[in-house]
Design brief:
Layout lengths: L1 H27 L3 H16 L3 H5 L8 H7 L5 H12 L12 E6 L9 E5 H21 L7 E4 L7 E2 L5 E3 L1 H8 L2 H4 L14 H12 L4 E5 L3 H13 L1 H10 L10 H7 L7 H14 L4 H4 L5 E4 L6 H4 L2 H5 L3 E4 L3 E2 L2 E2 L1 E2 L8 E3 L4 E7 L11 E2 L8 E8 L3 E16 L2 E9 L3 E2 L6 E2 H15 L6 E6 L6 E7 L6 H18 L1 H8 L7 E5 L3 H13 L15 H6 L4 E3 L1
Helix pairs in contact: 1-6, 9-10, 11-13, 17-18, 18-19
Amino acid sequence: MVMGLLSTIAQAWTVQRSVRDLARYDRAVRVPQQTQHAVLFDQLRREHESGYGRDHHFAAIRTIADFRRQVPIQRYEDIEPYIERVKQGETEALFYRQRVRMFALTSGTTQARKFIPVTDRVLDNYRRVWTAWGLLAYAAHKSLFRHARLTFVSDWDEFRTPSGVPCGSISGFTAQLQNWVVRQGYVLPTESAKVLDTQAKYYLAWRLGALRTIGAWMSPNPSTLLNLARFGAQHAETLLRDLTEGTLTEEFEWPPALRKALRPRLRPQRQRAYELASILERTGGLRPRDVWPELKLIGCWTGGSMQAYLRSFPEYFGDVAVRDLGLIASEGRMTFPIADGTPSGVLEIVSGYYEFVPVGDIDSPQPTILEAHELQEGCDYFILLTNASGLYRYNIWDVVRCTGWHHATPLLSFLNKGSGISSVTGEKLTEHQVAASVATALAEVDERLHSYSLAPCWDDRQPFYGLFFEAPDLPDAGEADRFVAVIDRLLSSANIEYAAKRDSGRLGPVRLCRLTPGTLLQWDQTRLAKSGGSAEQYKHPCLIADLEFAKSMEELRVKC
């Protein structure tokens, strides 16, 4: 009774604050140019006394042209010396009279991890937009207010800088800042952030989730959600035993703080064990759609290469709504989705200033630079960030497409990383083109792939692209041949350079390269271990541009 009352009060306070934020945002998106200029010049005024501000003469900047003249387009390597000074305790190198609460670490999917400073302003922006996203999503699915949410918590304190500042996941940091009442709505406690074994974290989600009525699953990567969905049936015996006996299996290593936090929760739940055993006997598995019939919403990325995974969602989740989480990275949030079933989101114009470079201009010494209100629907751009993290005109190498407008502010959809481009003979194939072609081909032949990567394969006579996937997918040879032919056709339709290279014989047709089961997972784990980052945010690449990848798979091929 008391817990329910406290939860209602906490929700009412959160909703009231979010409604004010949404009203402010609604006014802003009607005048994006005015809003963006206000955000930029406020940032420059705040930081003109910082080391970076003095070096780039922020105090003398009066116009957008001044800003672009004083601050060239930046890579991480350009800002890294200032960040290193902040890591050593010299906060004023980037921030005037502010404290750095932590460093958010990039997920490590492309190279060595980057350190992104998180100040109080960054935290306020981060929490405000996430709360507003949640309010809109929950308003569209009102039963969610009554049910628990399953989302993973990553470690916010993996290690410390020489000055003692924690480094890790910003989502984990904000989770432990939430008040106790709000935290009760989450299945996993904040102490689970220290569980580093992905399999152990999956088991914990099932073990604790089985005790709750869950309305939403949320994780950036849809492949994480699918792996979690399959996990229950694979570990049903252990799960049923733990539920019956009120225990937590010793198959995994559990941090002491987590064991202590879970002690009050672990009681025998024989009735729930019986229910799950009945589901297992009736259906032959433990799918989320059967275990949690109140599940109404999946929150995950849906754009770019992520779309291929969504095809498997109905099998495990049923007829559940899917809402994109938005284009968000350690470097900042860029979009704010406002509807289910679309990868597009409104540009988040209140928390940062954005510039855009047409994809074809990115290598030009004087590229075209556009502001948000100058974009054209259907065109693709690299996005540049200026925000409270101390980033100015920062090229995050994300390619986005303008898909329309919300009032006067652009709707953007993520396509691929700029690095996600492969060119053996000038074809400039993008990860988005690959993901879209494979997804369409799968639908056309009514097949599924659990995981795959397209990669260039060298042949002295005629190089080609191999579609690497794992047995036992595509067991029918005839259907497999039809599938790969459809992919080749769709790639030619999507990319005129690829079509030209195929027509001229400079590229051979796509070939299927079947791998032994578990090969791609092992490759992902090795890649992640080298670069660091959290498994929940890791994105398996649909396109691998490195010719060495195919060579490394030689001994593991079943057929190519």
